[in-house]
Here is the input.
Amino acid sequence: MPRRAPRTVLDRMRTPSGIPGFLTTASVCALIAGLLSPLAPAAAAETATPQATAAANDHCGTQCSDILPPGQNGNATLAQILLNQAFGTQPEHAEDQLGPYADLAKGYPALTNATINTFFNDAAFGAPADQVASSLKPAGRGDVTIVRDKKTGVPHITGTTRYGTEFGAGYAAAQDRLWLMDVFRHVGRGQLTSFAGGAPSNQGLEQQFWRHAPYSEADLRAQIDNAVATNGERGQQALADVEAYLDGINSYIDASDRGRYFPGEYVLTGHKDSVTNAGTIEHFKITDLVALASVIGALFGSGGGGEVNNALSLLAAQEKYGVTEGTEVWESFRMRNDPEAVLTQRDGSFPYATKPADPQGAALPDAGSVEPEPLVYDRTGSATTTGATGASGAAVKAATSSARRGMSNALVVSGKHTASGHPVAAFGPQTGYFAPQLLLLQEIQGPGISARGASFAGLSMYVELGRGQDYAWSATTSGQDIIDSYAVELCQDDHHYLYRGTCTPMEKIEQKNAWKPTTADGTAAGSYTMRVWRTKYGPVEYRATVGGKKVAYTTLRSSFLHEADSIIGFQMLNDPDHVKGPDSFQKAVQHINYTFNWFYADAEHTAYYNSGDNPVRASGVDAEFPAWARPAYEWRGWDPVTNTADYTPPSAHPHSTDQDYYVSWNNKQARDYTTAPWGNGSVHRGNLLEDRVKKLVQQGGVTRAALVKAMADAALADLRAEDVLPKLLKVVTSSPVTDPAASAAVGRLQAWVAAGGKRTETAAGSKKYADADAIRILDAWWPLLVKAEFEPGLGSDLYTAVTANLPVDESPSAAHGPTGSHAGSSFQYGWWSYVDKDIRSVLGEQVKGPLARTYCGDGDLGACRDTLIGTLKQAAGKTAAQVYPGDDVCAAGDQWCADSINHRTLGGIKHGRISWQNRPTYQQVVEFTSHR
Here is the structure.
């Protein structure tokens, strides 16, 4: 294990200038795109005598647990960064949750209720007297105390006034994540390169997110004013809470600057001088938090988009097969409402964004006319390199796809099926793996607030995912469509458009960035201007012609100009006087305008609600495709000044109480409820949870340990091996396999399937997979078999167009897609349902919602078998180095490393890789024993 340096010693150390460059430029960015320091103490004079925190009204006892790797401490002084880079020394509490988190991968088979906290933290309220590491009254205030526990360093914030409580929350957040918060406020403002360096990955990151939310300072301020003005007393309280929270952050900035224990990254990026202490760490202001919220919303809570790509694949299908058959083929691949899809809510129908019976207003582009709207202009210096322009291209693809980062899972079982008679839940968000982590843990106790859990750094005035006194809640990304594309007809020139009959100028929004080399980022000097043209229908995303007319395709998002609105819902979730049961929980999350699935458990009930401002579309408008920007096809009740509209009522959102069990892994929410991403078909990673939890419920007597074991087992499963490979092998073995190479490969694959199809080490820490050859073969075979199965029938143009809608694969080692490599989350986007349905059709098995045609071998079993065996032999012949070519983390051929989770550095502290698991980053395991 790395040595740990006591924070009190290192915080007083000073390091001379002229430090060798060791902090790579990509480290600040690699993070979210794949996307989105010691716990610096206050000055000694501010430290009070350690004392226990009084446990609030806690109805969970010892049966609430949580975990958030790598550790609570996300700040490091310059000295600590140097020690970490040179010797691997870790600041205190920087990675003490990483080991237990990683160990579950091999430890879960023997898990019992008594051993859960071997792999999780005790999430009870308060810190016992013998577990108090420090007690601080920030800035000498008498109305708030921050107690840190010995085991994890999590802050337990207790206030006697509301202001003091929120001041403490801000102060503690800055102690734990100041540098990260600063990075993200600059990402949200499109200013990352000027702040942290011009690495190509930094360029791509700021371009991706600023394109999504190109706000002026006035836009950011107006969002705060609107959220306050439209929410009465709660709005006023939210404003007061945010201002107190900001005061706490800024108080810590001042204290750490005076004491010279601020994060060392400020020195490495040229903002502070290590010798003279010259330079400034800018105070946070309220609009910074809106900018920060826009990044989090874009990453995890903005379903939709991709309408132009949908139009291109539809046109390719119609070109291949003709309009009627081509449309049928396209719809069968789109799977808007597949009858075999796993559902979170199994009963009822919730029609949303369904295919209209009589489509109206579609504005499909002319063939070959679509061009992405440029974002970057006036490049100089290092902004002109191939790496920089390549990063810009990747940013465009990430920003315009409907296959967004949609992660997180939830397993919730009603008390009717548990051993105790109380509901049990294991749930949490998959937010990726970063150093420091995007989330932070905290407990907040004060007037009107009583909660423990996780919050995004810089937005932690409330617990966003966690537990209250007698209830817990969590969320998964849902992905229903709240983003539409409109075709605005151009007039006069390329920057004027027709708005309700009047030729109207587009609004130009610009952000100019320049950078120069620093110790942290040696990228040569460069600069560019990001320019977005905004219309009343949103920012311009593409240019094209429709029926010969020049148009701009825009993107209108219901949460655009409303990034701050969700604060009211989170305020309610933290308020014990508001949340008293499932109904009040559902009312709280109805105030969250981002697209999430919300889950709830207390001692008696479970509940579910799908949130988001779902716009009411005009009759006949198909949400899958661009529509004309005309009043007849606008959202109903839409006000372009405020970007508000009529939204579907809460009763139209999937919601329920006390269903036998709930599972969610970004799968389809309910029948007739269309989600924007493709791939909600017969095989989805949600099936990995559904199959396991359903079996537990049928057996009865479910315990917390049993539910964690189900989650952990699914976290190691290769979805293809569990749900598709057996059918592929059924075709392959429909006749004797006589070829020696193919026969050997089949044998290895069959043995792996019989062993459970897991990607798991031979033993903890071995860094070698059991069934390594079979895993290598399937990883090599999948893309080959998909291409050979479908491209001959679809043709190259249509095959390529559909792969732009849905990537072929997302194995743990895949570097493509919205998640990227070394990110844990896997098997969300891929062609598994297509292969499954097609192969079952070839076998003559029943298929509900089949593809419009049969592709493998053109429907002939023998020809399909030949295709599969031919590609299997090709795959089996590939070496490990060919299948796993290596990257900046792993050597070529290292299979375990290619899959491994790597905490992408956002600062100077690095952590070791851990074995792959497909599970929430922050996770709770809860079972309440009583209720107020």
DSSP finds 27 helices and 33 strands in the chain. Confidence is low (pLDDT under 50) at residues 1-48. Residues 200 and 388 are 5 Å apart (CA to CA). The two ends are 44 Å apart (CA to CA).
